[in-house]
Amino acid sequence: MLRDLPVKLVAVGHVSNVLGTINPLEVIIPLAHEHGALVLVDAAQSVPHMPVDVQALNADFVAFSGHKMLAPMGSGVLYGKLDLLEAMPPYMGGGDMISSVTVNGSTWNELPYKFEAGTPSVAEAIGLGVAVDYLAALGMDNVRAHEQDITLYALDQLTALPDLRILGTLDATKRGGVIAFTFGKVHPHDLAQILDSRAVAVRAGFHCAQPLHETFNISSSTRASFYVYTTRDEIDSLVRALAAIHERFTT
Amino acid sequence: MDDMYREHILDHAMHMRHRGLLEPADIDHEELNHSCGDRLRLTLRIDENHRITAIGWDGDGCAISQATASMLGEEILGKTLEEVQTITREDILELVGIPLTINRLKCALLSLKTLIVGTQGLAYWQRIEDDEDDENDE
Asked: Strand A105-108 vs strand A38-42: parallel, antiparallel, or unpaired?
């Protein structure tokens, strides 16, 4: 497509929220740049879980949300290269984004205020800052190592269950801490509800990725997600519950 | 195991009655639950006295939606369309026999909706929904 069409912007998820796949940005970004396209990275699934160096990646824009990294809902970050942000007009008018207003026109405030019109969500922004400090103190290398350990352990246990089909690669070094799966004939909504009654929280449905599920020819999937607080014991609880459900639904 | 998955629901979910579409059929209607992707297609044969003489259905969905379709099929076989018309949401919940959360209520009612819209039309189903909502408001 890059070869045949005048592509202006390549938008790519760093880590798939269903498959867990870590996309090779070190290949994708230079390739897009070679063809004159800018790159916007959705890092909502990577920034909370692993070290991400936006300058080393040479990404033009990077977005991620606070609520996936222990921060309040409604907070988030949009990173952009300075020259691009300076060239862009504000998308919204309001307090703080303006420098001067006269009868004949207006001038815009400097970055980042140009894009932060109106009363800011102060509490959310402070909460996000605290979450960033907390994760930085843990060390993002440690966060990644912990999640990879849990993912490896979970993949190992889950692949041993009969009728359980994991979506995406089984190589824990190439995926983030989410595992979506189907489980024989047990419908994901039933599965989620029974797991919930056993104090295991998972998500069921399309995970906002309906075309992906169509590609796999499945109606929906169940997804277990891991983070800094997830323990091996909790994976054991999930696996024990799944084994019991399998027995219940097949006998 | 969770209350919701007691014997009779699992029994119907795993050994569905009247599954498989009739060809030809006098009534053939499909409904979807867009929020969860459940799908149900119902086919019926009706005799000259408006009596349901054969039922066949097909669908995808969770145990609740599939088991309810199976149970409703058993319930309406041999009944007339006039009799079927009087089945209410409460009758279905009684068949299910366990309390349902709001988001699972839609799963349980998909088969009744398919039956009522297929035999009486959408306006009739909407009247039932409105009436019962009014009752609940009081």
From this structure: unpaired
